[in-house]
Design brief:
Blueprint (H helix, E strand, L loop, with lengths): L10 H5 L3 E6 L2 E6 L6 E3 L4 E2 L1 H18 L8 E11 L9 E10 L3 E9 L6 E12 L9
Antiparallel strand pairs: 1-2, 2-6, 3-4, 5-8, 6-7, 7-8
Amino acid sequence: MNKDDLEHLPPHGEAIGMSLVSVVGRVCTVKVPYAEHLVGDPDTGIIHGGVITATLDNASGWAVRCHEDWATEMGMATLDLRIDYMRPAEPFKDLMVQAECYKLAKNIAFVRAVAYQDDIEDQVATSVAAFMLGTPNTPRADS
């Protein structure tokens, strides 16, 4: 799968300005540009931890979609997401997340991700996640 195959980001990803930067094999990289409405502490200008959480979760889901065994008709939901915050994000800098789906089993996908700004070695946060895989997502018929 390449970047062009990932047509639409999830609505929350779009709402925070997330964009897909690259896809290389099972690894995808996303970016959230710094924006005032994402700030959690107006005194410091540091983006809210929820933005970091959402970006790690969304990027990890896209990494599952980048796995060569992903079937586009599959459904997926976050089953578990563990995040370790290493340091505050620096004000006025974009947030980057690189995520890799290292295992896609029959019913569960496993992903590692890192959030950073200028240098991937100077991480803002790291995460490990598990995603439940299931039947296709189809809208429910009105009762």
